[in-house]
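Example (one chain per record):
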Amino acid sequence: MTINKKVLFSERFHAGSRTYYFDVKEAADGTKYLVIDESRHIEGDSYEHKRVMVFQDNLEKFMEGLTKAVTAMTSEDRSKDAPE
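Predicted structure:
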């Protein structure tokens, strides 16, 4: 069985030894989903790959969680910079 996927958006960026990919795809049935891939060089010619797929129905809750996580990270960073 072949699943036809249409890429609607694709973005790639490098961060040190890691490369991140953000792809928005559309399945044959019209369902849209976000694919977040991480590729990391580990040894020699070896790479480690991880993938998260977020479907359109879950996107709002995913973004709420992501926003909370980013806020926690950035507020922690700010508290380190604060004078004691």
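Caption: Residues 5-81 form a domain with the Nuclear Transport Factor 2; Chain: A, fold (CATH 3.10.450.700).
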